[in-house]
Amino acid sequence: MGLTIGLVNTYSTLNIGDAAIYSALTALASEAQVVAQFPDAQPNYIPGLQVLPQIGQCDAYISVGGDIFNNAREGLITKTFIRNLLQLRRSPQQTFVFGQSIPRSCHGLSFQALTFCLRRLAAVCVRDAESHQRLTQAGVNAILSFDAAFSLSVCEQAKTTAKNVLQTLDIQPESAALISLRAFDSMYSHDNHQFQQQIVTLSRNLYKQGYQPVLLIQSQAYGADNDLAVAEQIAVQVPELKIFNPFVVAHQQSHWQLVMGVLAICRLIVAVRYHTAVLAMASGKVPFNLYYSNKGKDLTQRLGIPGCSLDKFDPNTYIDAIARTSEQTFDHNAIRTQVKQAFNQCWQTIKG
Questions:
Q1: What are the Cα distances from residue 73, in Å, to 70, 106, 170?
Q2: Order of strands across the sheet with 123-126?
Q3: Helix, strand, coil: what percent of the chain each, to 5?
Q4: With 232 labelled, which of 63, 103, 213, 246 sits at a CA distance of 20 to 30 A?
Q5: β strands within 161-244, DSSP E
Q6: Spatial CA neighbour of 164 closest among 46, 271, 251
Q7: What H or E segment, with its residue span, contains residue 346?
């Protein structure tokens, strides 16, 4: 019998960014059987991952939730936060954190509780410089890398499927401007009405310049983490808009593969969602990065990706900068190698 690795602090397969993380880690740990459990009534397909009702006892555990250590109640510690901390205490010396961020909502008592647990783990690897600095200053021996999904590659079959889906929507890839979006709540603070008006103005400006604006649905998960309602509200105001929804398309690939395929072939990408930017870059494209948290800001600061903070974004001012991204490419090979090396470094602490 080979090793069994349990993914803990999972969120949902209905968020394509999270699904990409699960796929990436399953591939990175290919010598082991990787298992996970999800709250989804019908989990979406994740290549190679065995989905179980309960993961039970495993040889090792990887804490995988990107921003899972969000603590939504100021001055208190939420039950969800405590539940996530307990996942780290199943078998600390056989557990490592990989590719997570520490949200700014995690501070004070909640941050002290988190670092207490992290200091006892086999390894901790985070994906943004701010999280790394905070943990290091708190005495956690953390490694700085990038998001696990950077290790993924786009396949030709996904590009072909994406092109066929665009054709059914009467969209030409060479003129398509993909825009990801989301609703905002206490976890990520931004005014929803302001955001919708920003995307409405951006879409109109892109259309005037000869692009076909396309809203990308990247999550149909829980609460505010469901893009379709926001997309429909924006589309009412911009009749020329089209919506690319991978969840309603019949295809053989996993949803993240289809999204990566469409990102690879479209002319422009405006990445509001973090994993829109990550998957675009992993396919060699340069997005315009509209970040709303430390993880997104880190992509622009460390990798030089054009973009700005969402609360500072003026669609009229940045339209030319967005258009220029179509002339750029991103070297995804170096960052893919770095992520694999960081994963192997963590994995060796468990095996050793």
A1: 9, 9, 46
A2: 50-51, 33-36, 4-8, 60-63, 95-100, 123-126, 142-144
A3: 45, 15, 40
A4: 103
A5: 176-180, 212-216, 242-244
A6: 251
A7: helix 332-351
**This prediction's pTM:** 0.96
Residues in the chain: 352
Report the chain's C-alpha Rg in angstroms.
Answer: 20
CB atoms within 10 A of CB 141: 11
Q: Residue type for 305, please?
A: I
- Which residues are within 8 A (CB) of 133 and not within 5 positions of it... i.e. 6 or more apart? none
For the record, the structure tokens of 284 come out as: 């060699």
Residue identified by tokens 């998001």 is 147
Is residue 10 within 8 A of residue 22, CB to CB? The reply is yes
Query: Tokens 């149909």 label which residue?
Result: 220
The token pair at 8 is: 């803990």
pLDDT in single tens digits along all 352 residues of the chain: 589 999 999 999 999 999 999 999 999 999 999 999 999 999 999 999 999 999 999 999 999 976 778 876 666 788 888 999 999 999 999 999 999 999 888 888 899 999 999 999 999 999 999 999 999 999 999 999 999 999 999 999 999 999 999 999 999 999 999 999 999 876 666 788 999 999 999 999 999 999 999 999 999 998 888 999 999 999 999 999 999 999 998 878 899 999 999 999 999 999 999 999 999 999 999 999 999 989 999 999 999 999 999 999 999 999 999 999 999 999 999 999 999 999 999 999 997 6
Q: φ, ψ for residue 143 (rounded to 5)?
A: -100, 140
